[in-house]
Amino acid sequence: MLAQSLRRVLNTHLRFQTLNKRMSSTYANFDLVKRVKLGFTDVEVSKWRSRITGLSVVHLDYEAPIVNGYFAVGTEIFNDSGCPHTLEHLVFMGSKKYPFKGIIDQLANRGFSNGTNAWTDIDNTVYTVSTAGGQGFLQILPIYVDHILNPTLTNAGFVTEVHHIDPKGHDSGVVYSEMQGRQNTSGDLMALRLQRLINPEGSAYRSETGGLMEALRELTIDKIRRYHATYYVPHNVSLIVAGKLSDGTNGLLSVIQNQIEPTLIAQGYNEGPHPKGWKRPFLETSSAQRGPIRETITSTVEFPEKDESMGELVIGFIGPPPDEYLEREALDILGTYLTSSPVAPLNKQFIEIEHPLCTYFYFGEDTRATFVDLPVYVGSVPTGELDKLPNLLKECLGRIVTEGIDMTRMSMVIRRNRRQLWSKLESSKGDTFSGTIITDFLLGPQDGSGLLPAMNEMAYYDTLEKWTSDQWTSLLKRYYVDPPAVIVKGIPSASLADKLEKDEKERIASQVAKLGPEGLARAAEVLEKSKAEHDRPIPIEILKSFPVPDVKSIAWIPVQSHQEGNSRSIPAGRTTDSSELMKYIRTDGSPLPFFVEFDHVKSDFVTSHVFLSLATLPNRLRPLISAYSASFFSLPVQRESGHRLSHEEVVNALDNETVSYDTGLGVNSYFADMFRVSIKVEVEQYQSAVQWLKDLIYGAEFDKERIQVTLAKLQQAIPEMKRDGHTVMSAVWTELLFDERSTSRANGVTSQMDVIPKLIKQLQESPDSLLKDFEEIRKHITDPSGVRFAVSGEVLSLEKPRSIWHDCFRNVLPEANLQPVPLASRTLSTVGKKPSKKAIVVSLPTIESTFAMHTTKGIEGFNEPRYPAQRVALEILNATESFLWRYIRGSGLAYGASVSLDNESGLLSFSLYRSSNYMGAFRQGALVLKGLVDGSIPLEDTALDAAKSSIVYAVTNGVASPGRAALASFTNQALKGVSQYHNVDLLEKYEQVTKEDILTTLRDDFLPLFNPDTSVATVVTAPSQADGISQQLAGLGFEVGRRTLEASAEELAAGEVDSGSDGETESDTEGEDRR
Ligand SMILES: [Zn+2]
């Protein structure tokens, strides 16, 4: 107690000092534009601008182990050339002062970061970096800004990073591959159509800022250079920094003043924030002309898809001006009111019915100059219903306007939004506001007067809580019922899929013919020369001049931990003194006979989790877990108190009492053979949360109608899922490597597209048998030998931390011998136990690139002595701008390439994401590994240092919020069986890993990934490429099986295709080769 109050006094004192220090409103070239202190959080925001160069700086100051940077540029473009997006990529290719590709990431990694990143939106490009602690951040800042404002923009960079023609005559390049993977997806096609219809000619809001493929093929580096010269100027850049720096805001400004400003001034930027002739993008240009929509327009977009059963819909409305914050907040809440749960008005009418008209509504908001956009997205609409739906929606909204708002539910929605904002503020602090600050820079008033109104969300909740039903309905009427809208219907088209494939083949053939052998040779030469230019090694001295920060400078969040019940196990290792927690819990009732772990962190919230083992679940019931999970929170419940609640009452009560609730398989992609339920509440609601856990698990009634609704929704979502290359690849991979005991495998999209129609049929024909199956699931997962509870959060303020568990569960959970945590390694298939030779090639008409995964045996277990070396090796290969990146992404062969270790299953994998040239990328991967092992590609000490530093970031980030720190403590001790701070303990072990260790593991463990004798491959690709890939894989020595996912849901329901549950490569092929 004494210690605590003393600390408080010291804190007050310090705060007083900082306030004094901050009284000044200038710092060298920088003038304070605005300082904002919000009443509801301790985040302090100050916005500064250089009166010389016009550069803006915003610091969001608060305590947190991670520092985040967002460096924003306003980017306006009036065509589809993709200048903003291609430029975003080229910034990372080197700067005038640091003319080496990838140096920025190697330096960032050394500074406790996981590398840099960036995004390009319709009106801005934002460059990001996050570091553990502030030292690395301030070191990297001036180098990063030099890259943004003075990139090299070489021709060689354009060739590999943007677009080139490969030696076979195919178009390639990192950006090109990326757009190839996106451009013809329903989402992109529909978004572009909507933009074109909502914004008038001459508006930059019409443009595809990513660059259309046809435009990228014509783009030149000169155009990009001119674009850079116009928009990448200091008066159009804002450096936004969120987090704690050792010398506060002044430390930040001093780095910018001394290391950034002089270069800019020397370049002639000295005309202040608004030089003569400068037009603020979107505000002072023709893009600001945005009208209301004059009349309703309906437009149809076809997208390539063999399964024509489900379409999509987006309806565009125009909202209020961007600075009408109260009204924007009200519209956000209205969207939540209309759609947030099974009892929301739109869900009740359109989704929670026997034949759903869609699977979701999403009321979005896009910030734009003059007026914001209000798009409404409607997912998975049966193709036959697409025409009707917009009118039905309008009628439904009109009825709500006439009948009025359910004010009880509305006030619940507002209070819940408020709780969720609190919770978000606690877990990500000032980062919660990064989007708002970026928008303020792009569209807000220059004098900073927009900052406070933009961030003052809690004040708007206060006002909106007093709104009447009439105020809400008039808002709904004004924005969604009365005005005309732009309706874009997305219709799946099998013939378009064929046409695209045919056209692309013809285009490539004519391109090859036109180039001729000489043209192709010349293209190959250009590519080789460009690559050679990038391969120029970064001088080691530059890297070494960048000091690696001290791990001790990072402040970890302490977690007090205590376990109850049998099978307690606290493995040795670093711990926090938990005697306070233990004492506190022991004052509350008697010890518990079942397993509960309490993890205390300072917080306003507490989350109760249960992990239920699925180990003994009969395999035939495993595929039902998706449906069980999806219906979990929306079934009628018989409460222990004797009350029976309808499903609507359950949903309303949960929404009323909690911050959030969810179910899932395991945690953080581990332990998928446990069914998890989590309920997060404010501290006062803790007992209610525990009671809910009990009642939801034991008291739910498997109601036929509710199950029917759940199954119909799942069924309808499948076509959208199987359009996605990555989702399909994961499912096929799981089928190959795991057997029928694996819950993940049974619930992947390829299994579900088969199972769900059968369940629907079963429910119609013999409903009792299916409802009995659900009862049986409950019986198995509640077996006392497989139940583990976790309480994470503010345990020390709970009134009945322990006895509430006794009160709720004593009758259902007798003392039992807790069985070990079920690990995925138990469920490996024959192939999974010894991966060899097998390759599955799936052709998927909705994609134009390739997703692939090659898998071999890896180390298994959470405390394996070989793990530290492998972990560092993974980081060395994967780091941004490290080996795989340089050799594969850098050569334009794929958008992403990485290696990953699943140490629960004991599988090591090499994955390619959105690859435009899969075989080339695979060969390149093999080449890098072999080169490193035989020494022809040198492994520098600096790469080792960078990898180890980068892991520091990953570890810090994993425990950076109170919630994450508490959950990690539980996962480590109760599930992985390792020490409380295992991840932090490992940092010392990584430190000791030598170059020799790395080369050994690369040779022994990673090289087998590229040998067909010791690996298996799963490939999902465009139909046009499936034949070629299959032949090449066979040529390498793989036994290739072919698959398609073409069968429609109806065919499956009719039972024409057999279940895939009993054969790893069982498939609905159409007479294709299966070698
Ligand atoms: Zn990109």
Automatic annotation (TrEMBL):
Residues 1049-1075 are annotated as: Disordered. Residues 1049-1058 have a biased composition (Low complexity). Signal peptide: none annotated. Residues 1059-1075 have a biased composition (Acidic residues). It comes from Rickenella mellea. GO terms for molecular function: metal ion binding. Residues 79-160 form the Peptidase M16 N-terminal domain. Residues 219-413 form the Peptidase M16 C-terminal domain. It comes from the Eukaryota. This is Mitochondrial presequence protease. InterPro entries: Metalloenz_LuxS/M16 (IPR011249), Pept_M16_N (IPR011765), Peptidase_M16_C (IPR007863).
